[in-house]
Design goal:
The complex is a heterodimer of chains A (370) and B (149). Chain A has 370 residues and is mainly beta. Chain A has helices at 275-280, 323-336, and strands spanning 15-18, 25-30, 37-41, 45-49, 55-62, 70-76, 79-84, 88-92, 102-106, 112-115, 121-124, 130-134, 142-147, 158-164, 167-173, 179-183, 190-197, 203-208, 218-222, 227-230, 240-243, 251-257, 260-265, 268-272, 290-296, 299-305, 309-314, 318-322, 340-342, 345-347, 352-361, 365-369. In chain A, the strands form 6 sheets. In chain A, strands 10-11-12-13-31-17-16-15-14 form a 9-stranded antiparallel β-sheet, with no helix packed on it. A 5-stranded antiparallel β-sheet of chain A has the order 6-7-8-9-32, with no helix packed on it. In chain A, 50% of the residues are buried. In chain B, the strands form 2 sheets. A 3-stranded antiparallel β-sheet of chain B has the order 3-4-5. In chain B, helix 2 (123-131) runs antiparallel to helix 3 (137-144). Helices cover 20% and strands 9% of the residues of chain B. Chain B has helices at 43-55, 123-131, 137-144, and strands at 8-9, 22-23, 65-67, 86-89, 101-103. The chains are: A mainly beta (370), B alpha+beta (149). The interface between A and B is medium-sized, with 38 and 28 residues.
Chain lengths: 370, 149
């Protein structure tokens, strides 16, 4: 499957392998400050490479104070936020106004961390809600936790940041609590989370459909592989929910790039060609099929690198998929029978909505110095 | 399992070590702030999680046991109302049956009487689960970083 054509002619590899000695990768994503990649390890170290996978800056460095597996890395200017199941680490790198490297630690476990368009770090803390960090020079970061009543607030499992004008909008995968979204008002101690769910739903991931645009379009992923599509994640109360029979296994991750939707499950990677693009353009109507390309694999995580590639964390290596090549090759995959046009099942669940008030609570940051 | 209003002791001890097991109201609907077993999970299934954990010696240095429940196809079942896929069984006092609760691998899921770096399953627990064949490498790598498997 690592070639476009089976006969070897005009073939270009779909992916390349990246392997690092004594470095079990748990997370892979873009280099925070320049072209290249960044990897987190199962023992809490961070490794930077160029786009070819050549190591930069010498040996991997410590990223997690506890030495736990890294599950998220986000950046803003000269700040790097690293999340693990034990804590969130915030590293301030030297800059013209900062002459030494300083680390801060918040000892609360997170499922992941992202950066908002306005430069805040937001970590998903499960039943403890959200943690919002405004990085400041030194380790004087503003750290705020937001949570609501335990019987009303969704389990905040993953979060993605969207932007509309000057508004920062957070969209959250809330497991059985469904999809939650809120406008993040920086100065307010109380915020309102709008949630929608239905019986049996288990939302495990969420992503922007137009990540580089001023848009609140989003897609969420049910653990069974169903995709929930929003034109406006803050306002839609009956989003389009579709399921493709070809998608097998426990769903892990959902990403959208070049109008295609990528779903990683315990069984493989599935490309739903043009699904995002057609939805955004209003072309996803009854009778329209979607080319679905299954790539069987045993992977644990995946992230996008710009509009260029997908970094897939395998059991003992990282595979770098050329997503432009996949995007352009869908017609060829169809003609070869490697992908097939699929008519999704449209689900019509009884959606339940509510507004949940979440308020600021004390979260302590520990500065650990240089 | 419906809400329990009183402690129920399971009729059989574990296959290995002969531990008694009890089902507590706290983790069966009586305390919304505590980790809750999934209502669709039967008491027998909850006991199976514990029994298998004891049978396979899945315990940490402090003697806490950890268990999972696999579907026929190898996928892990959810055990808790927050979709936890692991369960923790703290050491019981002498003469008192054991009990347990669902737990995430992240430390924000721990019961409130535990805090700090110990409030999550230790690393060796995941290796033991994998070594006993209760989880796959892929599942271990997912659980290990606080993700669902």
């Amino acid at each position: 499957m690592n070639r476009l054509t089976s006969n070897g002619s005009s073939s270009k590899p779909l992916f390349a392998y990246l392997r690092f000695k004594d470095f079990g990768v748990s997370w892979a994503g873009p280099h925070p400050f320049r072209s290249g990649f960044c990897f987190g390890s199962e023992d809490g170290r961070v490794l930077f490479t160029d786009e070819q996978g050549n190591q930069m800056y010498g040996e991997p460095t410590k990223g997690s104070d506890s030495g736990e597996a890294i599950n998220g890395i986000a950046s803003w200017r000269n700040y790097l936020a690293i999340s693990t199941r034990a804590e969130v680490n915030i590293v301030t790198f030297p800059s013209p106004s900062e002459n030494k490297q300083v680390s801060g630690i918040v000892r609360v476990g997170a499922h992941g961390i992202v950066t908002t368009a306005s430069g805040l770090f937001v970590a998903s803390l499960g039943p403890l809600g959200l943690m919002v960090v405004s990085p400041q020079p030194g380790a004087n970061h503003s750290v705020r936790g937001f949570s609501g009543p335990p019987d009303e607030t969704p389990y905040i499992y993953r979060v993605t940041s969207l932007k509309q004008g000057t508004r920062d909008v957070l969209a959250c995968a809330g497991r059985a609590g469904g999809v939650a979204a809120m406008e993040l008002r920086r100065e307010d101690a109380k915020q309102t989370l709008s949630t929608i769910t239905f019986d049996g739903l288990d939302v495990v991931d969420i992503c922007a459909l137009e990540p580089t645009s001023d848009s609140l379009t989003a897609a969420a992923l049910d653990k069974n592989g169903a995709v929930i599509l929003f034109r406006n994640v803050l306002e839609d109360k009956r989003p389009l929910t579709v399921k493709y029979d070809a998608i097998k296994g426990t769903a892990y991750r959902l990403l959208c790039c070049l109008g295609d939707v990528y779903i990683l499950t315990s069984k493989g990677l599935y490309v739903l060609a043009k699904l995002g693009e057609r939805f955004v353009k209003g072309q996803l109507v009854q009778g329209i099929t979607t080319p679905v390309l299954p790539i069987p694999m045993q992977a644990t995580d995946t992230n996008l690198y710009r509009d260029q590639c997908l970094l897939v964390v395998m059991l003992d290596e990282v595979q770098k998929y050329d997503i432009k090549l996949i995007h352009d090759s869908i017609p060829e995959f169809l003609s070869q029978g490697r992908s097939s046009e699929q008519q999704p099942t449209t689900l019509n669940p009884v959606w339940k909505q509510r507004g949940v008030g979440i308020s600021e609570n004390a979260t302590r940051l520990i500065a650990v110095g240089a | 399992m419906p809400t329990l209003s009183r402690i129920v002791v399971y009729q059989q001890p574990t296959r290995k070590r002969g531990y008694q097991y009890q089902f507590t109201p706290k983790h069966h609907g009586a305390d919304v702030g505590a980790a809750q077993w999934l209502p669709t999970l039967s008491l027998e299934e909850e006991f199976v999680v514990f029994d298998e954990a004891v049978f396979c010696d899945i315990f940490d240095d402090d003697g806490r046991f950890y268990g999972v429940l696999r579907e026929a196809d190898g996928e892990l079942r959810d055990l808790g109302t927050w979709q936890q896929q692991m369960a923790e069984f703290p050491v019981a006092n002498v003469g008192v049956p054991w009990h347990g609760y669902p737990i995430w691998a992240v430390n924000n899921e721990a019961p409130i009487n535990r805090s700090g770096p110990n409030a999550r399953p230790r690393k060796e627990v995941f290796a033991k689960l994998e070594g006993a064949g209760l989880i796959t490498v892929q599942q271990r790598k997912r659980l290990y970083k606080g993700a669902h498997a």
